[in-house]
Design brief:
Blueprint: H1 3-103
C-alpha cells in the first residue's frame, strides 16, 4: 500500500471518528433539550391542573352559597307562614283557655 493510500485511509478514519463524535454530541444535546422541554411541559401541566382545581372549587363554593341562600329564603318564608298561622290561632287559644279557667 502506498503512503498516499495510507494517509487517505487515516484521513477517512479520522473524519469518521469526528463525525461520530459530533453525532454523539448532537444526540446528547437533543436528549438534554427534550428533557428540559418535558420538564417545562410537566410544570405547565401541573400549574394548569392546580388552577383548574382552584377554579372548580370556587365554582362549587359559589353554587353552595347560592343554594344556602335559597334554603335560607325558603326557611324564612316557611317561618313567616307558621308565625302567621300561629297568630291566627292565638286568639282562639286564648278564648279556649279563658273559657276553661272560668268554667272550672
Amino acid at each position: 500500500m502506498s503512503l498516499e493510500a495510507i494517509e487517505k485511509v487515516t484521513q477517512i478514519e479520522q473524519q469518521s471518528q469526528e463525525r461520530k463524535a459530533a453525532a454523539e454530541a448532537e444526540a446528547r444535546r437533543i436528549v438534554a433539550e427534550a428533557e428540559r422541554e418535558g420538564l417545562a411541559l410537566l410544570q405547565q401541566t401541573r400549574a394548569a391542573a392546580a388552577e383548574n382545581g382552584r377554579k372548580l372549587l370556587r365554582e362549587a363554593e359559589e353554587r353552595a352559597a347560592e343554594k344556602a341562600a335559597e334554603i335560607d329564603r325558603a326557611a324564612e318564608e316557611e317561618s313567616a307562614a307558621l308565625q302567621k298561622a300561629a297568630g291566627k290561632h292565638l286568639d282562639e287559644a286564648a278564648e279556649f283557655i279563658v273559657g276553661r279557667v272560668v268554667n272550672h
